[in-house]
Amino acid sequence: MNFNKVEFERSFGLSSQLPDSTGLEFVFAGRSNAGKSSLLNKIFNRKSLARVSSMPGKTATINFYRCENVRLVDLPGYGYAKVAHGERRRWDELIGGYFGQSRDIALVFLLMDMRHSPSKDDLTMVNYLIDSEMPFIIILTKADKLSKKQREERFEAFKTELPCGEDIAMIPFSSVTGEGAEEVCGIISDISEPEDDQESEEQSIIIE
Q1: Are 23 and 69 in contact (CB under 8 A)?
Q2: Which H or E element spans position 161?
Q3: CA 117 – CA 173 distance, rounded (Å)
Q4: Residue 179's domain is classified under what CATH number?
Q5: Integer CA distances (angstroms), 207 to 47, 195, 197, 198, 201, in order
Q6: Angle between helices 36-44 and 181-192 (to 10 degrees)
Q7: Using CA atoms, how far apart are residues 33 and 19, in angstroms rounded to an integer?
Protein backbone atom coordinates (compact mmCIF):
# COMPACT_ATOMS: atom_id res chain seq x y z
CA MET A 1 0.00 0.00 0.00
CA ASN A 2 1.32 3.42 -0.98
CA PHE A 3 0.58 5.75 1.92
CA ASN A 4 1.98 8.68 -0.06
CA LYS A 5 -1.21 8.57 -2.14
CA VAL A 6 -3.55 9.19 0.78
CA GLU A 7 -6.17 11.89 0.24
CA PHE A 8 -8.38 13.78 2.66
CA GLU A 9 -12.02 13.01 1.89
CA ARG A 10 -14.24 14.99 4.23
CA SER A 11 -15.06 15.94 7.83
CA PHE A 12 -18.37 15.30 9.59
CA GLY A 13 -19.73 16.87 12.75
CA LEU A 14 -22.79 14.66 13.26
CA SER A 15 -23.15 10.89 13.06
CA SER A 16 -26.23 11.33 10.86
CA GLN A 17 -23.97 12.91 8.21
CA LEU A 18 -21.54 9.99 8.02
CA PRO A 19 -21.23 8.30 4.62
CA ASP A 20 -21.97 4.62 4.18
CA SER A 21 -19.12 2.22 4.81
CA THR A 22 -17.89 1.04 1.41
CA GLY A 23 -14.77 -0.88 2.44
CA LEU A 24 -12.35 -1.55 5.26
CA GLU A 25 -11.94 1.26 7.78
CA PHE A 26 -8.99 1.70 10.14
CA VAL A 27 -9.93 3.88 13.09
CA PHE A 28 -7.68 6.15 15.16
CA ALA A 29 -9.06 7.04 18.59
CA GLY A 30 -7.71 8.47 21.83
CA ARG A 31 -7.81 11.26 24.37
CA SER A 32 -7.46 14.86 23.28
CA ASN A 33 -3.80 15.67 22.66
CA ALA A 34 -2.80 11.98 22.61
CA GLY A 35 -1.07 12.57 19.28
CA LYS A 36 -3.49 11.22 16.66
CA SER A 37 -2.81 13.96 14.10
CA SER A 38 0.95 13.60 14.55
CA LEU A 39 0.69 9.85 14.05
CA LEU A 40 -1.40 10.23 10.90
CA ASN A 41 0.98 12.79 9.41
CA LYS A 42 3.92 10.47 10.12
CA ILE A 43 2.40 7.42 8.43
CA PHE A 44 1.12 9.59 5.56
CA ASN A 45 4.61 11.10 5.25
CA ARG A 46 3.04 14.56 5.21
CA LYS A 47 3.64 17.57 7.42
CA SER A 48 0.13 18.86 7.81
CA LEU A 49 -2.46 16.68 6.08
CA ALA A 50 -3.91 16.01 9.52
CA ARG A 51 -4.03 19.28 11.43
CA VAL A 52 -1.95 19.29 14.61
CA SER A 53 -2.89 21.63 17.43
CA SER A 54 -1.22 22.39 20.74
CA MET A 55 -4.68 23.01 22.23
CA PRO A 56 -6.47 19.84 23.38
CA GLY A 57 -10.00 19.32 22.15
CA LYS A 58 -9.45 21.12 18.85
CA THR A 59 -10.56 18.23 16.62
CA ALA A 60 -14.34 18.24 16.86
CA THR A 61 -15.18 16.24 13.75
CA ILE A 62 -14.64 12.78 12.32
CA ASN A 63 -12.13 13.09 9.52
CA PHE A 64 -12.06 10.56 6.69
CA TYR A 65 -8.97 9.85 4.59
CA ARG A 66 -8.79 7.56 1.58
CA CYS A 67 -5.75 5.43 0.74
CA GLU A 68 -6.27 3.14 -2.23
CA ASN A 69 -9.12 0.78 -1.26
CA VAL A 70 -9.35 1.62 2.46
CA ARG A 71 -10.44 4.49 4.67
CA LEU A 72 -8.50 5.85 7.63
CA VAL A 73 -10.85 7.43 10.16
CA ASP A 74 -9.68 10.05 12.67
CA LEU A 75 -12.15 10.32 15.57
CA PRO A 76 -12.42 13.41 17.80
CA GLY A 77 -10.27 13.26 20.92
CA TYR A 78 -12.27 12.41 24.02
CA GLY A 79 -11.93 13.39 27.66
CA TYR A 80 -11.13 17.11 27.40
CA ALA A 81 -12.74 18.70 30.46
CA LYS A 82 -12.70 22.35 29.32
CA VAL A 83 -15.28 21.86 26.60
CA ALA A 84 -18.83 23.16 27.01
CA HIS A 85 -21.24 20.46 28.12
CA GLY A 86 -23.30 20.69 24.92
CA GLU A 87 -20.22 20.39 22.73
CA ARG A 88 -18.88 17.43 24.66
CA ARG A 89 -22.27 15.73 24.37
CA ARG A 90 -22.12 16.23 20.60
CA TRP A 91 -18.65 14.66 20.52
CA ASP A 92 -19.88 11.69 22.53
CA GLU A 93 -22.81 11.26 20.16
CA LEU A 94 -20.48 11.52 17.17
CA ILE A 95 -18.06 8.87 18.43
CA GLY A 96 -20.80 6.59 19.75
CA GLY A 97 -22.80 7.08 16.58
CA TYR A 98 -19.87 6.05 14.42
CA PHE A 99 -19.27 2.82 16.32
CA GLY A 100 -23.00 2.16 16.54
CA GLN A 101 -23.44 2.09 12.78
CA SER A 102 -22.96 -0.94 10.56
CA ARG A 103 -19.42 -0.25 9.40
CA ASP A 104 -16.64 -2.49 8.11
CA ILE A 105 -14.15 -1.64 10.86
CA ALA A 106 -10.98 -3.65 10.31
CA LEU A 107 -9.03 -2.39 13.33
CA VAL A 108 -9.01 0.37 15.93
CA PHE A 109 -5.73 2.03 16.86
CA LEU A 110 -6.27 3.40 20.37
CA LEU A 111 -3.68 6.02 21.28
CA MET A 112 -2.47 6.64 24.83
CA ASP A 113 0.32 8.85 26.14
CA MET A 114 3.03 6.41 27.23
CA ARG A 115 4.14 8.73 30.04
CA HIS A 116 0.91 8.40 32.01
CA SER A 117 -1.45 5.74 33.31
CA PRO A 118 -4.65 5.23 31.31
CA SER A 119 -7.39 7.71 32.18
CA LYS A 120 -10.92 6.75 33.15
CA ASP A 121 -12.03 7.54 29.59
CA ASP A 122 -9.24 5.35 28.19
CA LEU A 123 -10.38 2.44 30.33
CA THR A 124 -13.99 3.02 29.27
CA MET A 125 -12.93 2.85 25.62
CA VAL A 126 -10.86 -0.30 26.14
CA ASN A 127 -13.74 -2.03 27.92
CA TYR A 128 -16.13 -0.95 25.14
CA LEU A 129 -13.85 -2.40 22.45
CA ILE A 130 -13.42 -5.64 24.39
CA ASP A 131 -17.16 -6.00 25.05
CA SER A 132 -17.90 -5.24 21.38
CA GLU A 133 -15.30 -7.83 20.32
CA MET A 134 -13.77 -5.19 18.11
CA PRO A 135 -10.10 -5.77 17.20
CA PHE A 136 -7.78 -3.06 18.48
CA ILE A 137 -4.15 -2.22 19.18
CA ILE A 138 -2.82 0.27 21.72
CA ILE A 139 -0.40 2.88 20.36
CA LEU A 140 1.77 4.28 23.16
CA THR A 141 2.62 7.77 21.95
CA LYS A 142 5.39 10.21 22.92
CA ALA A 143 7.77 7.33 23.62
CA ASP A 144 10.76 9.57 22.85
CA LYS A 145 10.05 11.63 25.96
CA LEU A 146 10.98 8.73 28.24
CA SER A 147 14.36 7.20 29.08
CA LYS A 148 14.94 3.55 28.22
CA LYS A 149 14.31 2.52 31.83
CA GLN A 150 11.16 4.65 32.08
CA ARG A 151 9.85 3.15 28.85
CA GLU A 152 10.36 -0.37 30.10
CA GLU A 153 8.65 0.44 33.39
CA ARG A 154 5.65 2.14 31.74
CA PHE A 155 5.30 -0.63 29.15
CA GLU A 156 5.11 -3.25 31.89
CA ALA A 157 2.78 -1.04 33.95
CA PHE A 158 0.26 -0.81 31.10
CA LYS A 159 -0.09 -4.58 31.20
CA THR A 160 -1.52 -4.32 34.72
CA GLU A 161 -3.30 -0.96 34.33
CA LEU A 162 -5.38 -2.07 31.33
CA PRO A 163 -8.08 -4.74 31.46
CA CYS A 164 -6.68 -7.87 29.79
CA GLY A 165 -3.45 -5.89 29.44
CA GLU A 166 -1.29 -8.99 29.04
CA ASP A 167 -3.26 -9.94 25.92
CA ILE A 168 -3.38 -6.51 24.24
CA ALA A 169 -0.86 -5.69 21.52
CA MET A 170 0.94 -2.41 22.25
CA ILE A 171 3.25 -0.41 19.98
CA PRO A 172 5.51 2.40 21.28
CA PHE A 173 5.38 5.36 18.91
CA SER A 174 7.21 8.66 18.46
CA SER A 175 6.30 11.32 15.92
CA VAL A 176 9.80 12.76 16.46
CA THR A 177 11.88 9.66 15.70
CA GLY A 178 9.29 7.83 13.63
CA GLU A 179 9.47 4.78 15.87
CA GLY A 180 6.42 2.57 15.37
CA ALA A 181 5.23 4.25 12.16
CA GLU A 182 6.49 1.48 9.89
CA GLU A 183 4.87 -1.13 12.11
CA VAL A 184 1.50 0.65 11.94
CA CYS A 185 1.74 0.92 8.15
CA GLY A 186 2.66 -2.75 7.92
CA ILE A 187 -0.36 -3.81 9.97
CA ILE A 188 -2.73 -1.78 7.78
CA SER A 189 -1.17 -3.16 4.61
CA ASP A 190 -1.28 -6.77 5.82
CA ILE A 191 -4.96 -6.56 6.75
CA SER A 192 -6.10 -4.63 3.67
CA GLU A 193 -4.14 -6.71 1.16
CA PRO A 194 -5.26 -10.36 1.43
CA GLU A 195 -2.52 -12.98 1.33
CA ASP A 196 -4.00 -14.49 -1.84
CA ASP A 197 -3.63 -11.16 -3.64
CA GLN A 198 -0.02 -10.83 -2.45
CA GLU A 199 0.76 -14.36 -3.66
CA SER A 200 -0.82 -13.61 -7.04
CA GLU A 201 1.31 -10.48 -7.39
CA GLU A 202 4.46 -12.41 -6.47
CA GLN A 203 3.63 -15.17 -8.96
CA SER A 204 2.99 -12.55 -11.65
CA ILE A 205 6.38 -11.01 -11.00
CA ILE A 206 8.07 -14.42 -11.19
CA ILE A 207 6.35 -15.29 -14.49
CA GLU A 208 7.30 -11.97 -16.02
Answers
A1: yes
A2: helix 148-161
A3: 16
A4: 3.40.50.300
A5: 40, 18, 15, 14, 10
A6: 70
A7: 26
**pLDDT tens, per residue, the chain with 208 residues:** 888 888 899 998 888 899 999 899 999 999 888 888 889 999 988 776 665 444 444 457 899 999 988 999 999 888 654 555 555 566 677 888 899 899 999 999 999 999 999 999 899 999 999 999 999 999 999 999 999 999 999 999 999 999 999 999 999 999 999 999 999 999 999 999 865 454 444 444 444 4
Domain count, the chain: 1
Q: Within the chain, what is the greatest distance between any pair of CA atoms?
A: 62
φ and ψ of 62, to 5 deg:
-90, 125
Looking from the CA of 153 toward its CB, the CA atoms found within 13 Å total 8
For residue 23, the one-letter residue type is G
Backbone angles phi, psi at 120, to 5 degrees: -60, -40
Is residue 2 exposed (0-12), middle (13-18) or buried (19+ Cβ within 10 Å)?
exposed
Q: How many CB atoms lie within 10 A of CB 67?
A: 21
Range of the domain at 83: 3-207
At residue 112, the 3 state secondary structure works out as strand
Query: Strand ranges (DSSP E) for 39-169?
Result: 62-67, 70-74, 105-113, 136-141
Positive or negative, the CA dihedral 184, 66, 40, 131 is negative
pTM comes to: 0.85
